Amino acid sequence: MIRWLDMLLAQYNYLLRDRRETYEQVKAPKMGNYCNIRSQGEVCPLTCSVSKSSSVGYPWKKSQNNPRRSPYEIQSSTLPVLKKQRPWYKQIHSTVLQQMLRQLDVAFAKFFKGESKYPKPKRRSRFRSFKYSPGQGKIDENKIYLPGIGWMGFHNSRSIPDGFAMKSVTVRRKSRGWFVSVQIENKSVPLPPTKKTSEIRPDRVKGCDLGVRKLVSVSDGKTIQNPSNSKKYKRQARRLTLRQRAASRKKKGSSNRKKSFCLVASLHEKITNKRSACHWEVAKELTTGSDAIVFEDLNIKGMKSRCKPKPNDKGGYDRNGQSAKRGLNRVISDAAWGELIKKVEVMAGKSGIPVIKVNPRHTSQQCPRCHHISADNRKGEKFVCTECGYHDDADVNGAVNIRTRGLKKLGIDSTQLPWP
């Protein structure tokens, strides 16, 4: 399986480079002899690919109705040639190679939709799984059959319910060993429809304010503390720092260095699993007894960006607060707001509960009673309106304003709500 990952990584990066260079060649053809400075190879626009997606495969179909192949089909046509030129690729099951091409195609599709950045070559530490297409794997109690590998024993943590069929099987390498995840499906189970506006009760809509000390503040007055502030988490963070410090002192390339970084990776995985489990519990708590959930539409990446430098008259730079902001960025990363919202959307989708995002501007400075906006209204964790005297917890007050904006976005009259 380790050998498979190495070969798949090499082929993934090769095909990624092929797609990038082919697209650049079509967009701006290179002309003349020795125009590629790095390789000193001759490139002529007459020999460039007829497809802007790939140059290693054949771009035309045999049928005349739709003669041009998709980028995935072009590169997939090279797999038989690959196995002839490099016989060691015959060890890998054909569907695993095809799913690797699907992964590359999905990465480009997300880029063109604006959902992700331009695909980059993957490192070995970032390419740690391979996937089988539906109908390939088999499970017999505590044994699983993986085509090309054979029957393997595994810990069956959850049995497949009756009526569900196995779909794709993903084998993943982690610091504590190898894991397999199985996707199952039962088409007879209908998905709950999303609730319509007429079915949403205003008093069952929850506004959620995300924070650092309090992970979530709900509009009904409840607050959920951030587990990153607990003593147990801080103890693990301290242990992680000590392990990283010890690993960095080991000689590069030594077996002790590998063992030390294995301990660091194992602790990272434990912290990640605990954070994920906490997020699922929070998602279940938020979706229970609610008809809609409203979040702030936060620009988390912008919140963690570096402070702008402040040049002075002496040719140097003044302090811009970046050293102090590092701690805030670390806490925001530990809270993982984006992952929490994704889990809430998954949990809410099972019950047909809509998840809405609103503009967070002035939600923590606006009074929900007189709608007065002022930076003086909030002092730390306390909110006191300078106009009408209304007071409340600052984060809960922000959650109330988020709920009000969410109701307005849904077209529901917020005056039906009882005053908090």
Summarize the structure in short.
By secondary structure, the protein is an alpha+beta fold. The chain is built from ten helices and 16 strands.
- The strand count comes to 16
How many domain modules?
2
As residue ranges, the low-confidence spans are: none
Residue share in β-strands: 15-25%
List keywords for this structure.
single chain, 420 residues, alpha+beta, five-stranded mixed sheet, three-stranded antiparallel sheet, 10 helices, 38% helix, globular
Textual characterization of the structure:
This protein is α+β, with helices and mostly antiparallel strands and about 425 residues long. The chain has 2 domains: about 1-185, no CATH class; about 195-415, no CATH class. Helix content is about 40%, strand content about 15%. It has helices spanning about 1-25, 70-75, 80-85, 95-115, 230-250, 255-285, 300-305, 320-335, 335-350, 395-410, and strands at about 130, 140, 145, 150-155, 165-175, 175-185, 205-210, 215-220, 225, 290-295, 310, 315-320, 355-360, 380, 380-385, 390-395. Strands 9-8-7-10-13 form a 5-stranded mixed β-sheet. Strand 3 and strand 4 (about 150-155) form a beta hairpin. Helix 1 packs across helix 4 (about 95-115) and helix 5 packs antiparallel against helix 6. It is globular, with a radius of gyration of 27 Å. It starts with a helix and ends in a 10-residue tail after the last helix. The mean pLDDT is about 85.
